[in-house]
């Protein structure tokens, strides 16, 4: 049986590139962040809690907390095929990043 690849989204903001794979049926997303602010790359998983808040795993949470940033909200736009992420950043406040769906070979 052939499994299709999970939807993949890609984008960048302020020197950080994000790659997100959505595993809808399993209820989590794989996240990879790369850029100078992270000293290379970090990765981890995220999910929504019962209240709709974003919860990231311990390793990713530590990496983001050390840089005083966090994910505030995530929404998908099925019409535009995008993933919209709102992050809280030091000095800059809340910023939105739109990740566009890409198709992996």
Radius of gyration: 14 Å
Give the strand tally: 8
Structure classification? mainly beta
Spans of 5+ residues with little confidence (pLDDT < 50)? Answer: none
The succession of helices and strands, N to C, reads EEEEEHEEE
Q: Average pLDDT, to the nearest integer?
A: 90
- Report the total helices: 1
Number of domains: 1
Helix fraction?
A: under 10%
Oligomer: single chain
Strand order of the largest sheet: 5-4-3-2-1-8-7-6
| Largest sheet descriptor | 8 strands, antiparallel
Give the end-to-end Cα distance, rounded to a whole number of Å.
18 Å
Could you say which overall geometry the principal axes of the C-alpha atoms support?
A: globular
**Percentage of residues in DSSP E strands:** over 45%
Model description:
The protein is mainly beta. Helix content is 9%, strand content 57%. It has one helix and eight strands; from the N terminus they run βββββαβββ. The protein has one helix spanning 58-66, and strands at 8-13, 16-23, 28-35, 40-48, 54-56, 70-77, 82-89, 93-102. It has an eight-stranded antiparallel beta sheet, covered by helices on one side. The longest helix has 9 residues, at 58-66.
Which tags fit this structure?
105 residues; 8 strands; mainly beta; globular
Brief characterization of the structure:
This protein is mainly beta.
Helices and strands, with pairings:
Blueprint: E1 8-13, E2 16-23, E3 28-35, E4 40-48, E5 54-56, H1 58-66, E6 70-77, E7 82-89, E8 93-102
Antiparallel strand pairs: 1-2, 1-8, 2-3, 3-4, 4-5, 6-7, 7-8
């Amino acid at each position: 049986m052939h499994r299709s690849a999970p939807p993949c989204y890609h984008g960048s903001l302020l020197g950080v590139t994000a790659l997100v794979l959505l595993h809808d049926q399993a209820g989590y997303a794989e996240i990879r962040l790369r850029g100078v602010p992270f000293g290379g790359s970090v990765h981890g998983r995220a999910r929504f809690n019962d209240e709709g808040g974003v919860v990231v795993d311990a390793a990713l949470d530590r990496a983001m907390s050390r840089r005083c940033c966090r994910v505030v909200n995530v929404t998908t736009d099925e019409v535009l095929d995008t993933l919209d992420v709102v992050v809280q950043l030091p000095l800059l406040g809340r910023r939105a990043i739109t990740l566009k769906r890409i198709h992996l070979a």
